[in-house]
Design brief:
Layout (H helix, E strand, L loop, with lengths): L2 H24 L8 E7 L2 E3 L2 E4 L4 E6 L7 E3 L14 E5 L4 E7 L6 E6 L1
Parallel strand pairs: 1-4, 3-8
Antiparallel strand pairs: 1-2, 4-6, 5-7, 7-8
Length: 115
């Protein structure tokens, strides 16, 4: 083994350790995409407001015994009617506030805040 390689090993180990600690401390995971789940049940969205990061996928799942359909106020996303057990997913690629409602029951409202 060359002397240059042996003297570089501690520096490389320190860099690798620092990178591993940084990922561990920030909770970052370069392989896993973020996901948030919103439940639809009893004519409510739970949570009714969610704060997420850009790139997060939100999945709404209808746990109610009647159909629901999602519509974003500015028409940036819309689902088909979701029967019991059906889901709809949308990936948020831009920051902003996304207000949505059930187009079948307009009193049902929710909000996604993307930072």
């Amino acid at each position: 083994m060359s002397t240059a390689f042996i003297s570089a090993r501690p520096a490389l180990a320190a860099i690798a350790l620092a990178a591993a600690l940084a990922l561990g401390l920030t909770g970052a995971s370069p392989l896993a995409a973020a996901e948030t789940v919103v439940k639809i049940d009893n004519f409510t969205f739970t949570p009714d407001t969610a704060e997420i990061a850009v790139g997060t996928t939100v999945t709404w799942t209808n746990d109610d015994d009647i159909p629901h359909a999602l519509a974003e106020v500015e028409r940036r996303f819309k689902s088909k009617a979701l029967d019991t057990g059906d889901s709809f997913s949308f990936t948020f690629t831009s920051s902003g506030t996304y207000e949505y409602f059930c187009s079948l029951h307009p009193h049902m409202k929710g909000k996604i805040v993307v930072k």
